[in-house]
Structure formats: structure tokens, C-alpha cells
Design goal:
mainly alpha
Length: 159
């Protein structure tokens, strides 16, 4: 049996593992940058889900990050618009980066979370969002692979 002198140590340790995974995907050693990107992703995606889907997503998060997820949430105001521009604008503002960086960072965080969530969990969350927003979250390279595989319609077919 393991004895900790700090009852919060396991939650902090798990949170650090998740943050390190995000930082690795972002290609940075800056934990503050990784934290801003992770917080931006969690809040921006959360705000575009209905209450049930948001609760389902939060259940997959470690305790410490579940607090980050719910910080500042107003359930009566969700879901908000689902277009990529509003998503990137909110992400950029929350992460304190440019819109161009928001696109790259949101895809990197999605990639990191895909490794950390239970298998299929991220797919379930992304399925709640429109294809145009899924493309942003998956990044250009991966969404092109999915389009070629017939998972997404090509942008031309959607017009």
C-alpha cells in the first residue's frame, strides 16, 4: 500500500503527465504555453458541446484537469456557434496566440488528447461537432487523410 504525505500528489502527478504530453505535441518545453493551449482547447470545445456531451468528456479527464474544464463554465449558454472562425477566435483569445497559431495548436492538443483519452472517447466528442470544426481540431494533414478514406466529404462536395 502506498502512503502519500500529500493527498493531492497523485492528481498533480497525472495532471503533469497530461501537460507534458500536450507540450511534446506542441514542440515546446514551456509548460505555461502548454497549459494555455490545453485550457483553450478544453474551454473552446466544451462550449460547443451540449451539457450531456460536455459531462461525458469531463469524465475522461484527470481530477485536476476536470477543474480546469469546468472553470468559468455557464451551462445555460451552451452550445455556442459551431463555425471554425468563432472556434479559432475563442481559442486564440484564451491561449493568447494568433489565429494562425490557434489552428496549429488546437490540432496539436487534439493529437495529444487522442493519446490520453480512453480509446474512442475523442471520436465520440468530435462526432458531436460539425465536419468543418472537426477538420480544424484534427489539423489539415489528418483531415485530408480522413477525406481520402471517405470519412469526411471533400470541401468541394460540401459546397
Amino acid at each position: 500500500m502506498s502512503h502519500h504525505t500529500d493527498p493531492f500528489a497523485p492528481a498533480i502527478h497525472t495532471g503533469r503527465i497530461w501537460l507534458r504530453t500536450v507540450a511534446d505535441r506542441l514542440g515546446t518545453d514551456d509548460r505555461m504555453e502548454a497549459n494555455r493551449a490545453l485550457r483553450a482547447w478544453l474551454h473552446t470545445v466544451r462550449d460547443r458541446l451540449d451539457i450531456g456531451a460536455a459531462a461525458h468528456l469531463s469524465a475522461q479527464l484527470p481530477t485536476l484537469l476536470r477543474g480546469v474544464f469546468y472553470d468559468g463554465w455557464t451551462p445555460g449558454r451552451v452550445p455556442v456557434r459551431h463555425d471554425p472562425q468563432s472556434f479559432l477566435h475563442q481559442f486564440a483569445r484564451t491561449a493568447d496566440v494568433s489565429a494562425e497559431e490557434a489552428r496549429r495548436m488546437s490540432a496539436a492538443v487534439t493529437d495529444a488528447l487522442a493519446q490520453l483519452f480512453s480509446p474512442g472517447q475523442l471520436d465520440h466528442v468530435l462526432a458531436q461537432l460539425p465536419v468543418s470544426l472537426r477538420r480544424v481540431l484534427l489539423g489539415a494533414d489528418f483531415s485530408e487523410v480522413l477525406t481520402a478514406a471517405g470519412v469526411f466529404e471533400s470541401p468541394e462536395a460540401q459546397q
